[in-house]
Amino acid sequence: MNTVRHQSSNAFVYCRLLSYSYVTQLRSRSFVLKRIAISEIRSSRSRLLILRMSLSQNRYAPLRDMLQACPHSERLVVPWHFITNGDNPMKHHAFGRTSFVVTDVGFGAWQIGGAWGDVSEADGRAALNAALDAGMTFIDTADVYGDGRSEKIIADVLKARGGTRPMVATKAGRRLNPHVADGYNKANLEGFIDRSLKNLGVESLDLVQLHCPPTEVFYRPEVFAGLDELQKAGKIKGYGVSVSTVEEGLKAIEYPGVLSIQIIYNIFRQRPDHLFFKEAKRRNVAVIVRVPLASGLLSGKITRDTKFASDDHRNFNRHGEAFDVGETFAGVPFEVGLQAVEEVRKLVPAGASMAAFALRWILMNEAVTVVIPGARNAEQAKGNAAAADLAPLSADVMSATREIYERLIAAHVHHRW
User: Fold this and answer.
1) Which of 203, 214, 262, 267 could be disulfide-bonded to 288 (CB atoms 3.0-4.6 Å)?
2) What CA–CA distance (Å, rounded) separates 266 from 280?
3) What domains does the chain contain, in order, with CATH numbers?
4) Each residue's pLDDT tens digit, 61-112
5) CB 72: neighbour CB atoms within 10 A?
6) Which residues, at least 6 apart from 161, have a Cβ–Cβ distance to it below 8 Å?
7) What is the pLDDT of residue 306?
């Protein structure tokens, strides 16, 4: 929800991105809303529903107070199809305390950058276009994905498509060599941000995330103060942190400027649901879920005979040789993961893919703002979008996935991340 001043000195215009069905539901339930004028704006680029109300009318006080609790910002203009999304049932969420509205399934752009074997630029562009055609309004990338290739592909695709841009989040910090806490200073971060600004072809980054920094960084307030300064300078609209552990996430959200946390959460990594999600939701911090398919294990397509290219992290980082092993197969030993996958497969509804089922499992948690599966091609991107088509999972299915986790997986990962 976004608030902008009306011409009248005693009123605001409250803009809420709504579908007609939602407006009808609200008006049927609320005496207040029945008396507030609801109108449309139509143009070639957007269509919004607007709620108008006078601050001087005390009977509107409860709704006024609720609306005023939202951050004040410039009016957000989003294409109508991003909200109603045609026949696509993807839900939309406010992105924490920001003015952005995002779909619950987004696009993870690591694969189109590198470290996943041979993914051509053509396939990368096709994957991203397919995701956007499906209605996704959130893209996650990083400056080190293909040494900037991912960011540049995103910039080219969005420029070619035109229209209103989705939210694009990038990351900074992993260009440091050595990757140490002292490198996370304002000067270095500003340099990384300037490079991403150029790669993405924008004047201000929607969101920059510290890219799994050393744990010591979370105990250096000056790092976050530097990001506050860069935000005030207009180089970034906001910032968050991509974390490796639950403990890092809990520490990061103590800083008031942190708008989002990116964390691994999937059927094989369930610990964030124990405490972190509750705290993030209480503080209205957006939660971005990465590695949702455990590097492809939860797609159900990987077998013992699957061969990975030499430049695929599922080959060169299987034991944490290059970076945190938790980023590869979610830290689950390969053979154990394959065993658990076969048990999960029994729970997948008829007609659904295991990947869509695994994504739907994540979206069952209300604390999750957006999940960012990656895609190497258009077919995979369309398959990820299909997660929104699945009906909510039953309590019995959720309980069964919990039992599989506790019996086969938890001993390998729960205490580590």
Assistant:
1) 262
2) 17
3) 2-77 (no CATH), 92-413 (3.20.20.100)
4) 544 454 444 443 333 333 333 333 444 457 888 999 998 999 999 999 999 9
5) 11
6) 129, 132
7) 95
